[in-house]
From TrEMBL:
Its main location: membrane. InterPro entries: MFS, MFS_dom, MFS_Efflux_Transporters, MFS_trans_sf. Keywords: Cell membrane, Membrane, Transmembrane, Transmembrane helix, Transport. This is D-galactonate transporter. It is found in: Cell membrane. Gene3D superfamilies: MFS general substrate transporter like domains.
Length: 376
């Protein structure tokens, strides 16, 4: 029954670090700009700090997984989230805001890898895939909650981030009380990744990179595109992220699906659905049905896909499960960072519709990658 306790505390932590601490900036940016008077370049630089912080933290979480306990890393995630959100809520200029965004971004990278280790050491094998997938679905709840708060509180962004900070405090306390005090992995086990697991992980790494590039266009520009699309009702743009988040709850079933049908069928279904969501937005954006179907497909398939990547990675990096989660998530984030840069260029030159169609093609290409058995 311990897996249920892990889900109860782990899912909210992922919701806080991903939804409230990381993805909220894009939703709150128009209101923040009204107060701090930032130009687009400054806003973009601050946004990139979240990606940079995420990559730094996820690498640190993997490197130190054999030196400190997983519980310590989760607590670090909670603390950086709380401090970052507090700084954001009280920021008076772009520099202070950037510091808060960076610290909050660190929490995202710190939060995911340690749960893989905790689950590996405390949950029976047949339930591990499901437990990992349900905790990962916290991203969807955080995204939906953030989108809803953005609609309700509108321009009260300081108060919103203060509320986020209070929520983060309670989530950290619950994790501190529930998570076990397991010992860190042995140093020699963590090093095994370099010798035996790298070649087998190549398809996973390439797939994660392409999927990151593909989905970055949707995360970055879908809401702005829908809000400025006169062919569909304005509420579709306002509620886009709420739809994405609620649909993402379906992604929590990734572990159960993999257990029943296998990893590769789950991977193919998630990639096809994810890519099709971008294709619909690019080719059929003027249809109101697309305004519901596209974000529903994206939300459910994105969480499902990341759940598949977790299971795929952990199946390869058996000596250190935090690497199994950390490596694909790190490469996914790098792909998103690369994709965000090129997405802006393509959107400016060719328009949003061309961008989303191109993003879908990149996603479909990732279907060529298949799981390799671990070389021993």
């Amino acid at each position: 029954m311990y897996e249920k306790k892990l889900i109860v505390v782990g899912l909210p932590m992922i919701a806080v670090t991903y939804g409230l601490s990381r993805f909220s900036y894009g939703l709150m940016l128009p209101y923040i700009n009204d107060t701090l008077k930032m130009d687009q370049y400054t806003s973009g630089v601050i946004s990139s700090l979240s990606y940079i912080a995420y990559c730094i933290a996820i690498v640190l979480a993997m490197v130190f997984s054999n030196k400190v306990t997983s519980k310590f890393i989760v607590v670090t995630a909670g603390l950086t989230s709380i401090i970052g959100l507090a700084i954001i809520s009280s920021s008076s200029n772009a520099g202070v805001l950037g510091l808060g965004i960076f610290l909050a971004g660190l929490s995202t990278g710190f939060s995911s890898p340690p749960y893989a280790n905790i689950i590996d050491q405390n949950v029976e094998p047949k339930l591990q895939n499901q437990t990992n997938s349900w905790i990962n679905s916290g991203t969807s709840i955080g995204t939906a909650f953030t989108g809803l708060i953005a609609i309700i509180m509108a321009d009260s962004w300081r108060e919103t981030y203060f509320i986020f900070m209070i929520i983060a405090i309670f989530v950290l306390i619950s994790n501190y009380k529930v998570l076990p005090k397991n010992q860190p992995l042995a140093g020699k086990e963590a090093g095994r990744f370099v010798k035996e697991e790298w070649k087998s992980a190549t398809p996973l790494i390439l797939a994660s990179l392409l999927l990151g590039i593909s989905c970055s266009a949707y995360w970055t520009f879908s809401r702005d595109f829908m809000l400025n699309n006169d062919s569909v009702p304005g509420y579709l743009g306002e509620w886009l992220w709420v739809i994405i988040g609620l649909a993402g709850l379906v992604g929590g079933a990734a572990g159960a699906f993999i257990n029943k049908f296998g990893l590769m069928p789950a991977y193919k279904i998630s990639v096809i659905a994810l890519s099709t969501s971008s294709l619909l937005l690019g080719a059929f954006a003027d249809h109101i049905v697309t305004g519901f179907l596209s974000p529903s497909l994206f939300g459910s398939s994105y969480i499902f896909m990341t759940g598949v990547l977790i299971v795929w990675g952990i199946s390869l990096f058996k000596s250190n499960p935090s690497f199994g989660l950390g490596v694909p998530f790190l490469i996914l984030a790098l792909g998103q960072a690369i994709g965000a840069v090129f997405s802006g260029m393509i959107a400016g030159i060719m328009g949003y519709q061309t961008l989303f169609i191109g993003a879908s093609i990149i996603g479909y290409i990732s279907l060529v990658f298949k799981q390799k058995k671990l070389i021993s």
